[in-house]
Amino acid sequence: MGIHIGSREFGQAGLELFSALMFMIGVFIMRVIQQHYPNEIALKRQELTLIYEIVVFVTVAFLAPVTPKLLTSGLLSIAAAAQLQEFRVLKGKPFTSLMMTGNIRTFAESGFDFLTTGDQKARSTAGKMGIILLSFVIGAFLSGFFLPYLGAKTILISAGVLLITLIFGR
Hints:
Layout: H1 2-6, H2 10-36, H3 42-63, H4 69-86, E1 89-90, E2 93-94, H5 101-117, H6 120-150, H7 155-168
Antiparallel strand pairs: 1-2
Helix pairs in contact: 2-4, 3-4, 3-7, 5-6
């Protein structure tokens, strides 16, 4: 956003500011849900979060062709906030489901530790992070591949993956 302001691209900066504000609203919404469903019933809260994201994605798929980019971008920011706020740990380890840099760092660190010390726990962590990174790449590839054919409806693939996770991910 700062680069766009410095480049006098105020429209793009405004879009990014709006997305950031919508992200904050998404965090607020998730905090309400987290307070209503404390950690003791986190599984139910996670299911609710997945349903919430699916609803947002389906809404975006059908609104995107007929509404301003600002609205669909804002809705996606709300969904991203839900994902990042609720899904922070995977099998007891810190995890980021949307941004891969932290997962790449964990993968590299664990791989290094395994290669230099033979630590089997580090090997296991590196393996899990490798699967996560590969899944992210496959998801990004599929989105890029289908975008020219499906347009905004491409997000329904992500909604489908979340639905499969909701049904079979226990």
